[in-house]
Amino acid sequence: MSNTNMDALYPEFWAAAFDALDVGEFNLQEHVSRSLENQIASFGDTVNVPVVPSIADAGDWTPGGTITPDNNTQSTVVLSLNKSKAKTFALTDRELSLSPYNLIGSWGIGYAKSLLRTVNKDIYAEALKSNQFIDATGGISEDLVADAETLLSTNEVGYLGRVLIGSPGLIGALRKIDVFRDVDTNATSDIIRDGRITRQYGFDIYENNAIAKYTPVDLAGAVVHATEFPIGTTTIVCDAFNDDTMPVRAGDIFVFGSGDTAKKTVISTTQTAGDTTGITFYPALTVAVPNDATITVTPTQSALAMVPGGIAFAARAYATIDKPGARSSVINVRGLPIRITVWTDSTTLNTNVQYDILYGTKLINDNRVVRLIEDL
User: Fold this and answer.
1) Which pTM value belongs to this model?
2) Which CATH architecture has domain 8-51+77-213+300-376?
């Protein structure tokens, strides 16, 4: 970059902020299915994603006999580009007089990282809806990683593309386990030289900073029913949560105070006036739960053992921005089409810079996403 104030008036200058990021911190967009982006680009903002059906074993058949084909109905889930995200900052003449290095370091990198973090948090939140999980709240171990690998295999998920993605805390905990650390076991010294865990237990292992413990503002609720919710129930009505500022969400763990006291994981919730008033969970009740039974939520986070086909993701950049004299460019950041726009505010005369993106993500196959639920 040349040392001239004019550089900051061009989107290409601010693209350098992404070059300075260690995008390995936020890499979930690299490990999900992106195959639908061409369809979205051609046909609009919504596409129906086919879900591979579960087919029963082949039956006996006598050659020459009557042929009766299966009447299968193709099920689909809808993927919509419904998330429009932007980060915008304003620079005064004094700030524009800084060197290009300081402009990128003081302003660009932080805002660029913010946009990547937001995309990754949304993909992670979608993964938390999976009902396939391993309880690792007692502490992570090599046995639990092996259990996740086994569960994927039991679900008939192929080995190609399997990844294990965890928070810095989870990856740090794995580094302390001998089987992940020892050179003799790993046949590599990567973890000793630079802390990287390479392939283990059939997974390529990655760290992601968007994975973090989520703590609802209210961790205590109660069951609402005229008598009791029976065995087999997977959705209950509840009250006493005052959590509108940070509600219970998919992926949280909870237990009932009476009846079925086994741990449950939240699949989805409903809210009334912002407070949680309904919870769909897994697994189903094996013992009836009475009215007014307490509900206690435990803040957790989940490492993701998965293959790309479990989650669909599509993104595209906006074409134009409605600002006089605005300059826009679209850059590719690890497959994410991010638009950068620079314009001058006619009122303040500040120079505004905006990073933005349009995208959507959807869990399409629970069997391909196994969560290791942790209490880190």
Assistant:
1) 0.90
2) Alpha-Beta Complex (3.90)
